[in-house]
Amino acid sequence: MNIKTLNKIIGSVLLTGSLAIASSAQATVITSSFTNAFEVTEINQTGSLSQFDSALGTLNSATLTLSGESLSSTVLTNNAANPANFSFTSVLNFFFDASSVGVTTPVPAFVTQLASTAGFVNLGSGASLNLGPVSDIASYSVTLTGGDLTAFVGTGLFDTSCSTLSGSTFVGGGANISNDQTTSAFCSASISYDYTETTATPVSAPASALLFGAGLLGLAVTRRNKKTS
């Protein structure tokens, strides 16, 4: 084996070792979540999510998703002596507070639909119209990066609270339409952390490469000396 060939082998070994080190960092995603139980509205709920432990690696971004679900049964009754022409819509507004991690949410964060006549309807005197049950789900999501991530880093928990306000709108009906509505809802939330996980540096890899190269060099020199003696 000549010196030129040996240099190529040593270079290849060292390059392999350096590539192994470079590939030790990889992107990973972990999540934390909570889901509360259905409660009769109006609700006021709280849940806890885990912070990101910096011992796992370097946090790149955090995606906070706030969700809510409503379930409603609605019966409208015309109490007037004459038929009534009207439209009706009922919604549930979800409000979230994530100020503990510096997140400001829209007010409301989102709205779910509880009932709707989907336009104008005509209801006879004393007649009732059943608009339920209606189930609806909605959510709001925000992704944070850079300096906005500071409050998410730690080894503890942070709280997110939620409350609701329902609202109904009649157009027409002469205020003679009664609304018998039962609604329950719940809030949930999740946090997804995208981070770069850095594994322990394989310090033995370059050292082994150098030792292997030195061994090859020594072997080549020994063989060359034997040939010249």
Task: Report what the structure shows.
The chain is α+β, with helices and mostly antiparallel strands. The protein contains 2 helices and 11 strands; from the N terminus they run αβββββββββββα. The protein has one domain. The protein starts with a helix and ends with a helix. About 5% of the residues have low confidence.
Write a brief caption for the model.
Keywords: Signal. This protein has helices at about 5-20, 205-229, and strands spanning about 25-35, 40, 45-50, 60-80, 85-95, 110-115, 120-125, 130, 135-145, 155-170, 175-200.
Features:
229 residues, alpha+beta, six-stranded antiparallel beta sheet, five-stranded antiparallel beta sheet, 2 helices, rod-shaped, PEP-CTERM protein-sorting domain-containing protein, signal
Outline the secondary-structure elements.
Layout: H1 3-22, E1 25-35, E2 39-40, E3 44-50, E4 58-78, E5 84-97, E6 110-116, E7 121-123, E8 128-130, E9 134-145, E10 157-172, E11 177-198, H2 204-228
Antiparallel strand pairs: 1-11, 2-11, 3-10, 4-8, 4-9, 4-11, 5-6, 5-7, 5-10
Helix pairs in contact: 1-2
